Amino acid sequence: MSVDATRLLERIGGRIGPQHVLADPADMAGYLTESRGLYQGTALAVVRPADTGEVAFTVRECARAGVAVVAQGGNTGLVGAGVPFGGVVLSTARLDRIREIDPVNVTMTAEAGCILQNLRAAPAAHDLLFPLWLPSEGSCRLGGNLATNAGGANVLRYGNTRDLVLGLEVVLADGRVWNGLTGLRKDNSGYDLKNLFVGSEGTLGIITAAVLKLVPRPKATATAFIGCASARRTLDLFQRLRQSDDDTLTAFELMPAFALAMVLKHGQGTVRPLAGEHQSYALIELSSPDPEADLAGRLEAVLGAALEEGLIADATIAASEAQNQALWRLRETLSEVQGLEGGSIKHDVSVPVSRVADFIEAAEAACIAAMPGIRPCSFGHVGDGNIHYNLSQPVGMDKAAFLSRWETFNRITHDIVAAMNGSISAEHGIGLIKRDELLRYKDPVALDLMRTLKRALDPQNILNPGKVIAVADDAPAALPVAKSA
Ligand SMILES: Cc1cc2nc3c(=O)[nH]c(=O)nc-3n(C[C@H](O)[C@H](O)[C@H](O)COP(=O)(O)OP(=O)(O)OC[C@H]3O[C@@H](n4cnc5c(N)ncnc54)[C@H](O)[C@@H]3O)c2cc1C
User: Fold this and answer.
1) How far apart are CA 46 and CA 82, in angstroms?
2) What pLDDT is attached to residue 483?
3) Cβ(72) – ligand 1 distance below 6 Å
4) C-alpha torsion 49→205→39→155, nearest 10
5) Which of 111, 205, 310, 389 could form a disulfide with 95, with the two C-beta atoms 3.0–4.6 Å apart?
6) Which H helix or E strand runs over 45?
């Protein structure tokens, strides 16, 4: 480490405590690797400030020294955005206070390091809920959720993170603090600055706190699992539920036969939900703050009619909390079991809901034609047009040889997405893994505006450099250095 770097870390340690400046490789290891092992990073140190003042001090000192700062929450991101390539990792783990719950304004002010699961639970005493839900809720942190504009299973009803935030507190690239912690639902006093930072993946500022919208806590829930002849029919059922039960429909998760087979084969404690086998499945949830709402009755009526008409082939409705959890476990296990079937080339895309079935049919046919034996797994939050379009390697194929075709399948998949006016990133962000794809598919004027904003807010290019949009020639390579997915 250079003398200058040592002095910088000493100055930061002098303010936040030397025990919160980790420079030992063993202590830093967990912060330097992408959650699926796609990227291996490096850093001078990991710093763990405890409050906004300490974050501002750290960023100011790094700016003076021209050292990069990479914000990190739970490091559960899936696009390599939180991996440092030099500089300092700023972990938000110690900014974990809930500053206020205002049950009348129906808002919660929380710091960026709060774990999502805790944020969901905290307003229960007021019969309220922070409704963002991701399978990574036990590890991901609010700042990461905001910086990625995370989505998840309940976007259908409550929107994505962007829709759930009213105000932000942000440390800027020069160390100044922007206090935008307003709980206002109407505020037309100039540009909407908070929306610049939501989804910016740590490239424009370090979010330290946010005012979040809450919703009435659901007290009645009903969950069903259905089997269908095709994804198209599953989507038809979704439309029907949208018509009949839009006000209580909180999740509609698609799973193809291959996904269920993987979950039943590899997932601990998973149980086959339906007697027969079908091409396509969906997990459906209705919920309501009204404890008396007969949601199981609603599901019985809609699914019964769909069965009679032959739209769906089979269905089960959870009769207890244990059954409800068992059905959700099928969906939650899916992310972790895919790696057990060998290499997996992943895409997180969105198309208009009306094109989801078209996308799945076209993309699966094109990828199978390009590589017979490839196993598509098109799953996810299709109710909001988001498809996790993952491709498992053919059985018996060499994993590295399969993963070396990543770009081929990117091209096939993303060209189809583009032709349907979709997005190459629905909810995971751009980070590193899609940075070069963005150049290919995003409107050139939009790219130009993004570069202009980046240069204006971070003229030294010290905030998460090289991610989302590169503005310097020395940006890290976008392709994974260790493709082990
Ligand atoms: C099993 C699993 C399931 C998942 N399911 C979903 C899903 O359903 N929907 C979904 O959207 N995502 C999902 N994800 C992805 C991930 O959990 C989300 O992107 C999450 O929002 C990341 O939060 P984090 O705290 O882990 O952020 P990190 O991974 O630490 O960081 C992500 C990005 O945010 C930046 N960042 C972090 N904190 C701050 C801050 N305070 N200020 C500025 N920038 C910051 C980082 O620099 C980085 O660019 C899943 C991940 C896993 C492992």
Assistant:
1) 12
2) 52
3) yes
4) 100
5) 111
6) strand 45-47
User: Residue 41 and residue 26: Cα distance in Å, rounded?
Assistant: 13
Q: In the chain, which residues have pLDDT < 50?
A: none
Strand partners, 392: 344, 375
Secondary structure letter of residue 351 according to DSSP: -
E strand or H helix that includes residue 128: strand 128-129
Which one of 72, 164, 206, 333 would you pick to mutate in the ligand 1 pocket, going by the greatest count of ligand atoms within 8 A of its CB? 72
Which residue's CA is the closest to the ligand 1 atom numbered 44? 202
Ligand 1 atom closest to the Cα of residue 146 is: 21
- In this prediction, residue 484 carries a pLDDT of 52
Residue 464 Cβ inside 6 Å of ligand 1? The answer reads yes
Q: 242: which 2 tokens?
A: 């949208």
The CATH code that applies to domain 342-428 is: 3.30.70.2740
Ligand 1 nearest atom to the CA of residue 208, by list position = 41
| CB 74 near ligand 1, within 6 Å | yes
- Mutational test site, ligand 1, from 33, 36, 132, 140, max ligand atoms within 8 Å of CB: 140
User: What SS3 class is residue 80?
Assistant: coil
Q: In what order do the strands lie in the sheet with 165-171?
A: 98-102, 107-111, 206-213, 165-171, 177-180
Give the start-end residues of each E strand in 130-240.
Answer: 165-171, 177-180, 206-213, 215-216, 220-228
CA-wise closest residue to 89 among 11, 175, 200, 206: 206
Give yes or no for residue 350 CB within 6 A of ligand 1. Answer: no
427 lines ligand 1 (CB under 6 A): yes
What's the gap in Å between 43 CA and the centre of ligand 1?
A: 19
Domain ranges of the chain: 98-216, 220-336, 342-428
The CATH code belonging to domain 220-336 is 3.30.70.2190
Whether the CB of 151 sits within 6 Å of ligand 1:
yes
The predicted-structure confidence for 139-197, as pLDDT tens digits, reads as follows 999 999 999 999 999 999 999 999 999 999 999 999 999 999 999 999 999 999 999 99
159 lines ligand 1 (CB under 6 A): no
- Which residue CA neighbors atom 28 of ligand 1 most closely? 75
Quickly name the fold that domain 98-216 has. 3.30.465
What is d(CA 58, CA 31) in angstroms, rounded to the nearest whole number? 18
The reply to whether 220-336 and 342-428 are identical in fold is: yes
- Cα 323 from chain centroid (whole Å): 26
Specify the residue with its C-alpha closest to ligand 1, atom 37: 144
For ligand 1, say whether the CB of 78 is within 6 Å of any of its atoms: yes
